[in-house]
Amino acid sequence: MTEPALTARGPAHHGAFVEVAHGLVLAAMLAALAGMVDAIGYLHLKGLFVSFMSGNSTELAVALGQGDLDRAAKIAELIALFVLGAAAGQMLADFAGRWHMTGVLIGVALLLTMAAVLSTTPEPMVFAMGALNASMRRAGNIPVSLTFVTGVLVRFGQGLGNFLTRR
Question: In total, how many domains does the chain have?
Fold first, then answer.
């Protein structure tokens, strides 16, 4: 009779499997948080997003194409805040070292609390969703994405964070 794959590969493999599984569950929970925050932002911003920058990029192109410069400026501000949030999250993660996830998630929680208190302004939510990306990049050896955004904007923000901390 054959043993289950985890038993046959030994305890070290089982530990790695559990670590990846826990990481994927946490990533799914954080992605769900981002989705819920994005839904709230979408309703508040009447069709714009706080974490889905691909959608905002499309809306920016539409606004520019229609000559609606006021709406284009508002959308460009959201994208810039998201990128700055990604940069700040990266800087916080670097500063926190091995406690990077805890530090970034505390920062995100504080920003979301601020957004709830200042319910008329979406800026803290956008900044928080940019920063959230620095909390977790991998579940074991599997890359994960926490918000539904264009990877280029996240990498740009993280690169900006690295540049600002001279890494």
Answer: 1
